[in-house]
Amino acid sequence: MAKKPDTPLPPYFNLDPAAAAAKLGEMVDTARFAKAAAFAGRGRDDLAKRGYAPDGRKRLRKFSTWEVCRYLIPVAPAHLRRVLNKNPDLPQGEGASGSKWFTLEEVLKLRDHFAEEGISTKEYRPYRPEGLPAKVVAVANFKGGVGKTSTAAHLAMSAALDGYKVLVVDLDSQGSMTSILGGQVADEWQTVFPLLARDYAEAVEAENKVRAAAGSDPIPLDETLTEAREVSLRNVVQKTHWPNIDLIGAQLNLYWAEFQIPVWRMGLRNWALWDALTNALDQGGALDDYDVILLDTPPALGYLTINALAAADILMVPLGASFLEFDSTGRFFDMLYSTFASIEDGENAARRRAGLPEMKFEWDVVRALITRFDASQQTDLANVIQAYFGDMMNAYRQDYTALVGQAGESVSGIYEADYRNFNRETYTRGREVFDRTYAEFKELLIGSWWRDQQMEQQQSQQEETADGQAQTA
User: Fold this and answer.
1) Got the DSSP string for 363-374?
2) What is the pTM of this model?
3) Which residues fall within 8 angstroms of residue 276, CB to CB, at 6 or more apart?
4) Lower Cβ count inside 10 Å, N or C end of the chain?
């Protein structure tokens, strides 16, 4: 009888300490980190430029007649061709008559034409009530790798394709969103940092007026704060390769804000540090210039994230369908409660003493969103997560598809991918993942605006009624 071969041992048995030591290499000093960072920097630049044109800039691809009529403007291809033939002053696209290709700028012009001349019952422009400010949307979770930047980027691109004007603010010093949008950021002075510094400087100046009246010494403004006083929001906003997406980018030095903000707060205890970004967006005109402002936050509940959450009307919280991500997200909500309830308690105690009305943080809506979903393995756990988060959970779960994977490899969004690089079914399914996510998001967006409009009208009617009663009396 032949002897059975021995079952091989697991690979972690019988390791040779001397051979293991030989693989360690030299001792690692701090200079080695600089070398690794330099290599990674060159590699990051090389990989990021996969989606760039030969001149080193990103270019947004053109859209075919099929895409325009299916995804962008609700018209039949034959009708679009008739309209183009009848209106030679409209963008005609490139290529043969049956296969035209249009830039997004051209699509936006066509959209405007149909909005003015087309059927009144069709939505050629997305809903946006006049006179109301932009909606600020924060995408946040303090666990990394849950799809925050990917979700924020695709919401921005979806909204842009839908006709909205979008401002994206990258608050993560890793700068991933900035890379996706082709942004160039030399230092922290091209990020939100000077806007936060300016808000503190203005608070110091207001405090110094009070101190001067009382005969007290002023709080000094250092060189950074003096320089920040001259920076406005428009100084840090840059155009992207999307005609209706602008960007405030990020880079590594932005992380310095996490150390500087608490130092400023110690210098002036009544500075409302959480309102700095809100004030910058308001004073800089962003709430009037844009329809949607998307804030991509770092994977931590630091001062930058607190500013984003305080500025937000809508909060989107991505997470994967795993126990660890569910657990982390629950703790994230707990920290949100602790942080903002603490701010409310501290501020309102002072306001009550001063006879001022109390403050309260409120959001139009908060939704958790499952990303990178694999229905074959994660449905049960996703159902459990859905049950516990209840109405704070998006109904649609964002599948991971081949289109999503390839877009990530080229440092771009799925809407930037050319469908000719896939078979039609793969492209359609991959796009549907984010189209359905955007559809749910758009419901939150337009619902929030509509509710604001109704509240504004009710308030106006109450004021008119009160004025009428006062005049009668």
Assistant:
1) -SEEEEEEESB-
2) 0.88
3) 195, 196, 199, 200, 261, 307
4) N
